[in-house]
Write a structure and sequence with these properties.
Rossmann fold; five-stranded mixed beta sheet; 44% helix; five-stranded parallel beta sheet; 14 helices; 516 residues; Heat Shock Protein 90; elongated; 4 domains; disordered N terminus; 21% strand; alpha/beta
Length: 516
């Protein structure tokens, strides 16, 4: 036999009434309509205030006039103490002016005692609307809190970049000193390296906290998340747009932070609505997905396995290649009143959850944002320990603007068997290539002021450079591989640069190039 539905939870109803017969009549009417409730009756100021604290009603029903007390006075007390609790006048008579005044002062509804048949439906509706408003206010408060953290994240991102530039040469120096035979010098090098690593950990901690990566992790039920989004979007869907929520089953859960996930999906949904000025369909769906090694882009950590794919799909105007290439550039926006930080925030949230963001868009046909979040069982393929190899006299061109960082990289490369040439600008690098010939491998800083890394790579192609490139990038500002020139082999190495990782990357790329 099918199981019976869960019983409806009882409402706590505070009844302000001086006539016991009328109080009983009201309760009988509610019971007769099938409403489950617990009632408490008061008829004066002291009893009403005490009941608000002890009984904590879900709904207040009140007569208008009573000896020594009034419903309007009860309404004022309730609104001062509990502004969201519904208040319904139940009176024998109430004039038009009194009814208007009651609603203006915060009453939810009024019902005449001669028409009690609609009282139960009025109570149900008032309670439901109050619950929805509480949930909406909570969601908006959490969203504002997350947006404040986003502003802090931008500041922290700039500071972390500057601090990394200061600490990175210390790490490279410590790695170089570790190769010296003098034990006293090696100990000093260990001290320098330890201090640099501690400083970088502090930078990472500050940046992680500012970006919200340390918010509480909880078990998020996808159906609850989708229902909350549907409620938040209810008043934002324009005419002509159909909202489709392919709600997942109750058993589908995700480990993460519901506030951040809700912020991310809400942002994508609002963007999708604005992309359909002539109407269309907005679809939010969830489904399991298995991700293989071919899914991951160059420079992404490869973690194949089981994922949950969330899709936000619209049938709007779509995006051109130019718009797609700039989507995650801070302050880039196609809206007259936009900040350009929304999608940057979405990508940050997905990344903080260990996930990946993919975009499929065709002009005139719509856009789909696909969010992949790892499920238990995904196994990382990273973290293997490989012995650091030495060079065999290959020519390396190092292009970095900062003199201190450039010198450290030069020492690292030359002390490990490579023949290095340096340049502090892209222009100088191109001049050296024209005069001395193309190198076997290029180490290039992606963040240069006079000529960007992307433009430098494009110029290298014009000089017939076909070798591998080691691109030094900030972990919070990875280039889009689709936006880079068609260099056959590009390896991203995150800053601050680890000497073993750099040397392994050099050897791997040179060995791969020699076999082609």
């Amino acid at each position: 036999m099918p199981s019976s539905p869960d019983p409806q939870p009882s409402l706590r109803i505070l009844l302000v009434e001086d006539d016991p017969l009328d109080a009983e009549l009201v309760q009988d009417e509610l019971r007769g309509d099938g409403l489950a409730f617990d009632a408490h009756v008061v008829d004066d100021d002291i009893g009403f205030r005490a009941a608000l604290d002890a009984f904590r009603p879900d709904v207040v029903l009140s007569d208008v006039t009573m000896p020594g007390f009034s419903g309007f006075h009860a309404l004022d007390i309730l609104r001062a103490a509990h502004p969201h609790t519904p208040f319904i006048f139940v009176s024998g008579t109430i004039g038009e002016e009194a009814a208007i005044d009651a609603l203006r002062r915060g009453a939810t509804d009024y019902v005449l005692k001669g028409r009690l048949a609609r009282l139960a439906s009025a109570v149900r509706r008032a309670h439901r609307e109050a619950e929805e408003k509480r949930a909406r206010d909570h969601a908006e408060k959490e969203l504002l809190r997350a947006q404040r953290y986003e502003s802090l994240a931008l500041l922290a991102g700039g500071l972390s970049h500057d601090l990394r530039n200061i600490l990175q040469p210390l790490l490279l120096t410590a790695d170089a000193i570790a190769e010296y035979p003098d034990e006293s010098l090696r100990k000093h090098g260990e001290l320098v390296g330890d201090c640099a690593r501690r400083g970088l950990e502090m930078v990472a901690s500050m940046l992680s906290f500012a970006r919200g990566a340390r918010v509480a992790v909880e078990r998020v039920r996808l159906r609850v998340l989708f229902d909350a989004l549907a409620m938040l979007l209810r008043g934002s869907v324009p005419r002509g747009v159909e909202l489709r929520f392919e709600r997942p089953g109750d058993d589908i859960v995700l480990d993460g932070n519901q506030t951040e996930l809700q912020q991310c999906l809400l942002n994508l949904c609002l963007n999708a609505l604005q992309a359909m000025p002539e109407g269309g369909t907005l679809t939010l769906a969830a489904e399991p997905a298995t991700v293989g090694p071919e899914f991951f882009a160059e420079g992404e950590s490869s973690t194949p396995g089981a994922y949950l794919k969330l899709s936000v799909r619209d049938t709007g105007i779509g995006m051109s290649d130019e718009v797609r290439s700039n989507l995650f550039r801070p302050f880039f926006t196609t809206k007259s009143d936009g900040t350009g930080l929304g999608l940057l925030s979405c990508r940050r949230i997905v990344t903080n959850h260990g996930g990946y963001l993919r975009i499929v868009s065709t002009p005139g046909e719509g856009t789909t944002f696909e969010l992949y979040f790892p499920l238990p069982g995904a196994e990382s393929t990273t973290g293997e320990t490989v012995e650091v190899p030495r060079g065999r006299g290959e020519r390396v061109l190092i292009v970095v603007e900062k003199a201190g960082k450039l010198n450290m990289l030069y020492d690292t490369v030359t002390l490990n068997g490579y023949e290095a040439t340096t340049a502090q600008s892209s222009t100088e690098a191109l001049q050296k290539i024209a005069a001395e010939g193309v190198p076997d491998v290029l180490i290039l800083d992606a963040d240069m002021s006079l000529m960007s890394g992307e433009r430098t790579l494009a110029a290298l192609l014009d000089l017939d450079y076909r070798g591998p490139v080691i691109l030094l990038v900030r972990p919070d500002h990875l280039p889009d591989p689709d936006g880079l020139p068609p260099i056959e082999r590009i390896r991203f190495v995150e800053k601050p640069v680890s000497q073993p990782l750099l040397l392994r990357s050099l050897r791997d790329e040179l060995d791969a190039a020699s076999t082609q």
